[in-house]
Amino acid sequence: MKKIAFLTPLHPQKTGIADYAEEMLPYLRASLREEFRLDLFVDDCKPNGEDVLAHHQIFQIDDYEKLRDGYDLTVYQMGNNSLHLKIYELALRFPGVVILHDFAIHHIVAMLFLDLKKNEIGYFDEVGYNHGAQVRNEAYARAANGKLGLWETNAVDYPMNRRLVETALGVVVFSQFAKDRIEAYGCPTPVHRVYLHCGGEVADCPAREQSAARQRLGLKIAADETVVGVFGFISPAKRPFQILDAVEQVMKKTGKKIRLFYVGELQPTCSELPKEIKKRGLSQQVQITGFTTSEEFLEYLDASDVCISLRCPTMGETSGVLNRALSRGKPSIVTNIGTFQELSDDTVAKIGCGDTEVAELTAALERILTNRKYRNTLSKNGLNYAEAHLKIADTAESLAEFLKSAAWAATLTKNEMYRKVRDRLLDNCRETLRTDDAILRPMARNLAESFGGDGQ
Q1: b/e burial code for range 233-259 (CB count within 10 A of at least 16 → b)
Q2: Residue 61 DSSP SS3
Q3: Considering the entire predicted model, what is its pTM?
Q4: Which of 153, 162, 322, 391 could bond 130 through an S-S bridge, CB–CB 3.0 to 4.6 Å?
Q5: Of 14 and 56, which is predicted with more confidence?
């Protein structure tokens, strides 16, 4: 039996990547069957998930280095926050498969160099490595002039993931958006696109289940009220103030009654939101739940009539909340940016991010509330999309097949005979590349790149 070290956040850590891991692991075990054992490595965390505790050995990430030789493959769950700092550093030292949840990881790289290492020059050099001298100079000029950093304004344009990709044995992404941009680097690292699963069964949420969810949450919703849900950490990128503007305008314009729930933890950057709600006299219509358990989170989603999943700016992430909403037949509104652009216009309602954002959001929400045919179309097409792509067993099988091939490749790289043959082959390729042979040179370049050479 082969062994896989799986480095990841887990509950009770507050992150969607922990949700993803704990939902995926039972299916991943089933897809890997008896060929592999998955051991979990966490950072300063005591996991509390029943399935995790029952089926996995759990270690601390600080122990990984001394244990790593006992594993055939390491899998790094990579996000863009402080929970992934140690994972990021280990992934650069010990190549494995990187599951890249956020295409842009500029925040975490900036945190590592600027906040922890206090190494501005190292940060600028890292920008140069990932994005070239011109962007390095831009990063330096911003710092020198007290302007916002690149990660604060242009993270998706300067994702800072190239070194991670080049080091990895393989990269898993959740969108064509991310796959296309990573493959454009031209490095030989295999990139595999897996759909981000919806977290549960694909099934419409009928009125009786919606009503039951509302009762369990203790919500008193009138028959003529529409429940709008906004899910996840409440940060400026989720556009909470713009959503408040639009909901208020729709109620005034149409006379429709709306109950708006922000389901998630309020971030310091949005601390004025409660005051704004009270100032507008909307305390009865708008609530902020604060952090919820995974079970409560899903109850609120089932309790909703409409879901709003905006991102501006985007980190190139794929929204697990949106996928869950689609799998439950919830009409959804998204920002027409990044990975959201891959969904058809009759699967989700799309709005821009700019001067017309509130007006477009107001119009989209009004259309969903007043046009039953349109609302039903979004619901039906969302369910069809989820059925075709987001079932957890299917996504686990796709991930398992990629991990199996990566484990085989990792075993090869540990084999001394393989390394000798590879090195001799690369030497011959380099010799050929120094010739003028028009036929053999392209063949030698492709072969060298396939075996980890630079093709030069």
Answers
A1: bbbebbbbebbbbbbbbbbeeeebebb
A2: helix
A3: 0.87
A4: 162
A5: 56
Three-state secondary structure call for residue 80: coil
How long is the chain? Answer: 456
CB 270 within 8 A of CB 234: yes
Residue range 69-110, pLDDT digits in tens: 999 999 999 999 999 999 999 999 999 999 999 999 999 999
For residue 209, the number of C-alpha atoms closer than 13 Å in the C-beta half-sphere is 14
DSSP per residue, 311-332:
-SS--S---HHHHHHHHTT--E
Instruction: Tell me the per-residue pLDDT of 283-334, one tens digit each, with 9 for 90 and over.
Output: 999 999 999 988 999 999 999 999 999 999 888 899 999 999 999 999 999 9
Q: What is the DSSP letter of 232?
A: S
φ/ψ of 225, rounded to 5, equals -100, 140
Q: What amino acid occupies position 106?
A: H
Residues contacting residue 392 through CB under 8 Å, at least 6 positions apart: 23, 24, 27, 197, 198, 199, 200
What distance in Å separates the CA atoms of residue 157 and residue 355, rounded to the nearest whole number?
21
